[in-house]
User: Which sequence fits this backbone?
């Protein structure tokens, strides 16, 4: 992760490549699909183009462990200005980045991705993250469906719980059993997608949602890219296992270590994968890293 403080671009690029090599080593047995995604904060793209070019060139070169097949490099926006989104997304794509993520901080995370989709061709676009509980599964499903259609299948739905205080005191959202709430949110959202794509009757009943009504007037109908990957933010055991069980990706907190990945996060993700008969190749890890030039 690049902050706004000055740094020597080449040193930062070398440090990021070194960290990428460590993560690639962890993913070495699973190189058929992208297993790790590393996010560079938006200030690097806006103010440090040389660093971004170096990183992109290093990434595109033939590095050991076949980094290109095991790694993707993305840009993360902690905040954004809608008036800049078109040029910012085009810059990220032209520099060779694979994806662009928008966070839900002081602006909505979905709006900038619509503009980004309009002005790019290959860049993957995801929310990193959108807070799940203030939005119903129907709202999440519809926004994701429209973005997936408009972007020709490049949209990634990234969800997170946030914390109790922000949900109750800032967002006015319910906070009860966040792990179970997130599980139901994922399954209910996919129930809408199945209904719209395949004509399956909407019938999801859980502890938090009872969804059994869909009429033609409110049905957007099928799209060309109905498989929308869901990533969830996960730190503790329960959410990591849920990601492994149900999701295509997991957002690892930027404040982590290789030891945390090897001894805590990956084992719990593996446990979730095994629970649902899935393999490690079925899920990607997305994270930012702190690169400190020396």
Assistant:
């Amino acid at each position: 992760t690049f902050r706004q403080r000055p740094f020597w671009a080449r040193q930062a690029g070398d440090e990021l490549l070194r960290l990428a090599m460590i993560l690639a080593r962890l993913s070495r047995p699973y190189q058929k699909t992208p297993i790790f995604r590393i996010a560079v904060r938006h200030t690097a793209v806006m103010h440090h183009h040389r660093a971004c070019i170096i990183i992109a060139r290093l990434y595109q070169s033939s590095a050991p462990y076949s980094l290109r097949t095991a790694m993707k490099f993305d840009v993360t926006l902690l905040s954004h200005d809608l008036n800049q989104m078109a040029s910012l997304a085009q810059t990220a794509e032209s520099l060779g980045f694979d994806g662009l993520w928008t966070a839900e901080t002081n602006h909505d995370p979905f709006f900038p991705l619509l503009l980004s989709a309009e002005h790019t061709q290959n860049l993957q676009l995801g929310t990193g993250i959108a807070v799940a509980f203030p939005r119903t599964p129907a709202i999440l499903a519809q926004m994701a469906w429209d973005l997936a259609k408009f972007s020709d299948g490049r949209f990634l739905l990234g969800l997170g719980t946030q914390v109790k205080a922000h949900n109750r005191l800032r967002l006015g959202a319910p906070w009860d059993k966040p792990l179970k709430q997130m599980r139901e949110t994922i399954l209910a959202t996919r129930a809408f997608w199945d209904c719209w794509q395949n004509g399956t009757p909407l019938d999801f009943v859980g502890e938090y949602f009872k969804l059994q009504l869909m009429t033609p007037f409110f049905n957007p109908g099928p799209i060309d890219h109905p498989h929308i990957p869901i990533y969830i933010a996960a730190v503790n055991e329960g959410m990591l296992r849920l990601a492994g069980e149900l999701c295509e990706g997991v957002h690892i907190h930027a404040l982590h270590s290789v030891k945390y990945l090897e001894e805590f996060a990956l084992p719990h993700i593996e446990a979730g994968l095994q629970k649902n008969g899935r393999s490690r190749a079925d899920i990607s890890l997305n994270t930012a890293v702190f690169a400190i030039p020396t």
Summary: Residues 178-198 form the longest helix (21 residues).
